[in-house]
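Handoff note, outgoing to incoming analyst
You'll be picking up this chain. Sequence as last confirmed:
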Amino acid sequence: MRGLAAIAVLLYHFDGRMSIGCFSSGYLAVDFFFALSGLVIDDAYGERLRARNLTWTGFARMRLIRLYPMMAAGMAIGIVVLLAAYHLHEPQVVHDLPVLLASIACNLLILPTPLMAQLFPANVVQWSLFFELLANGLYAAFIRRLNPLAVIAVSGAVLIFGVSRHGNIQLGCVWGTLVFGLARLAFSFSVGVFLARLKLRTYRCPMILSLLPVAVLIAILAAPVQPPARPFYDGIAVMVVFPLIIVAAISWDFTKHGNREAGFLGDISYPLYAVHFPILQMFYNMTKHCHFHAWAVAAAYVPAMIVFAWLLARFYDAPVRAFLTRAARAKNGGAAIPGRGAGFVSR
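Most recent structure output, in case you need it:
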């Protein structure tokens, strides 16, 4: 499901540049990602963090090794595209070169720039990866005092107010919605943590039933919604439907159905998400004066991005993370990265 959600985000951003009337609710996949992150992180690391078999530093090192290589790749591509757009006087670049360079320097350090409205102008989607690292760090620091239900209640109230005020749940990528974006993160991530701690049983199910959560997720992300209904749609999707989809995915054992396809989509999900936006911007800048039909551009762009994401996953991300893992272990004198007996767990 992560791979399909990443493709939905790609199509949502494509629709925003070259209107194809497709996946207009794709931005909701970010909330789904946050919930999945809370689920996976608590399931993989929670017991070791609570037992102090895994230090905060070791956990942070693992998360950086997991996330930063693709963040750096997306940022590198984004810097090239942004500076080229500046050189060509593209209308989306309205800042002076010193402001752009200072913002790029902040972003390379995984910090939002205070000089522009967008937190990460070279690669817009990096705001959500920054939020994920922030959630991971706070989770590990306060896990022994973390009450996910309390966080869900408080952040949910703030999020409802933010959605009603802004008309949708697209919150967090610019400074003006930062507070509500943090509530967005806290709510979905805490829902994932709560679901992980339920330790739900898994039941074997027929293939047709196993496809139901996937079909519902795609329908939610693809649905066109009129502006008056958008706050209600976003709120119900994030607060009700997505948790139910995750519960179904946990509870129904469909591992024998589509293993190869699911593995492929899982492998490409993070690289695809991390790099698609600056490449889309490059496609748009190159084709906007050529009068190509939007669907013709999509037919070239989407398959090319899927192949490129697979190449990145196999020949860049995996080798770089393996190298960084070996280097960290060597620095620890051959001990496992986490610090006290916990091995590397990929996500």
